[in-house]
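PROTOCOL LOG
Step 1. Enter all chains and additional molecules of the complex.
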Amino acid sequence: MINMLPPYLAGCISAAVFLGLTLAELRRPLRRRVESQLVRESRNFAVAGLGAAVTALAEIPAATWLGGIVEQRKWGLLSALAMPAWLRIALSALLLDYTLYIWHVLTHKVPFLWRFHLVHHVDLDLDASTALRFHFGELALSVPWRAAQIVAIGVSPAAFTVWQTALVASILFHHSNVELPIELERLLNRIFVTPRMHGIHHSMVEAETNSNWSSGLSLWDRLHGTLRLDVPQQAITIGVPAYGDSADVTLPKLLIIPFRHQRSDWSGKDAAGQRR
Ligand SMILES: [Zn+2]
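Step 2. Run joint prediction.
Step 3. Record the structure below.
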């Protein structure tokens, strides 16, 4: 049996990826920044801190406990098939990645879930710190989905920790504001979600946001016909039109967005009217 990745190792890998990307963002920025980096990053870290508490107190214990039961009682799709441990981990990660694509679509399409996912999208810049900034409510709501993924697929605790560490690295990478050489980005994008691809998902244009929902492999967007690579980064304004001012996205306002009367998100004109 392959053991779980120790939490300190997963934490060190994520911290190293974050630091490496932050340094690369300073050297080769992909998009021009709108807000002060210090103010934004402090705000994003505060939102991320609350989210990390939910992940540490709810998601990880639930996934480890359920994964143990799945392993013991041979629940889930992959338990029905005999295969080496490494292949089971790889297939678990593949199916977790696909079902996360579905969850991401749901967070946009189901109004109640969008109230929470919106907090991630109203960031006026996009960089590695945006990758950490999910409302704690969204992370709490994702726990039952994660539990269903684990039981249906048959994900062991070892497979879960490997996938979660790879996912964090992938999310940090594709939210980052790093300008990769275009040839390298195109090559990577054949398999993985890349910064330019995910930048289109964070556009203020609704039709552009409704694309590029994958979190790890770009395959799922290709299969569903939701891949878009035709928008130059210079043409993209990051955010959601109804929350287009810095004053709309202060830390207290961010935290209460899901619980307030919802603005007409994609109409700049309506949004301006409501702000007045
Ligand atoms: Zn999204």
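Step 4. Note key features.
The longest helix spans residues 37-73.
Residues 269-276 have pLDDT under 50 and may be disordered.
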